[in-house]
Amino acid sequence: MVVAGTYNPFLVALSVLVACLASYSALDLGEHIGAARGLARRAWLAAAAITMGGGIWSMHFIGMLAFVMPMPMSYDIGLTTLSLVVAIVVTGVGFYVISRQGASPLSLVLSGIFMGLGIVAMHYTGMAAMRGHAELGYDRLLVALSVVIAIGASTAALWLAFQTTDLWQKLIAALIMGLAISGMHYTGMRAAIFTAHGLVHDDPVNASLDQINLALAVAGITFVILAFASIASLSEQKRAEEALRQAQADLARVNRVNTMGALTASIAHEVNQPIAAAATNADACMRWLSGDPPNLEEARAAAMGIMKDATRVAEIINRIRQLFKTGTTQRELLDVNDVIREMIVLLRGE
What we know:
- The chain is mainly α.
- It has helices at about 10-35, 40-65, 75-100, 105-130, 140-160, 165-190, 205-290, 295-325, 335-345; strands spanning about 1-5, 5, 65-70, 75, 130, 135-140, 190-195.
- The strands form three sheets. The protein has a three-stranded antiparallel beta sheet with strand order 1-7-6.
- The chain is rod-shaped and about 140 Å long.
């Protein structure tokens, strides 16, 4: 006799919520895999695999507990644990392949197929762990459909994990992934055919209460793991932002030092010119004055040159002080050609 079960809508909604939250956490952790190197990269890879694989398995197990049968049901611990290990391993391998630099679209497809088949293996291993007074069979067409959904969801998950960076993109992607993963599970559950042996005498209400308690326990543990993963991701993001700010500050400091070095060299060149000219004029003035008789006209011209050069030096120093002086800006008419000529002299060495 074929036995039909019913679903607890609360647990179904809880399983979908777990799938969406796990998908978001995996997308969030996936950002750190590509940027990290060495041991840190392996740590983020393991965290993403545990989060995604464990989340998928948790959704699957809660979804199975949401299925209420009119007979007592139990689960083989060994097969149930194996299904969890399979989910984590295949998810980790998929993330590892697609996170490598230079990963091709072919790698994405092959990783999606491998991860999808692994999730299918996880699901049907978990189904095989069910123990009850019924024989388990499957609708082949629905099984094939669940395989297709699993591969599609896995490929999309791997692609989105290394493409989405914006918060809203990650939220939408997590929702799509969660619904796809849930769709695969419930398609696989719909493919299951339970044939009871003899008459069934059972109290389905008590069984349902036990399943709710177990499902809540699994969901609670999953939420704790996802919370730790989110905290770790947020801490790493803040650390990376602080490192970026420090790097920008260091770069700005280096640029300022380089700029001041170039400016100092140009200013020294500009100031040395009138100083050298003043020294030359002073020497000439001394020669004209020491003549017999002294050439006062030439000495006067040399002294005027000294005054002109000294005035030019004073103007240069005054303009430098104005650069660092705070206060209101004063506007005045300016010949732009004079500015260009001054800049040519200042930057002639460049």
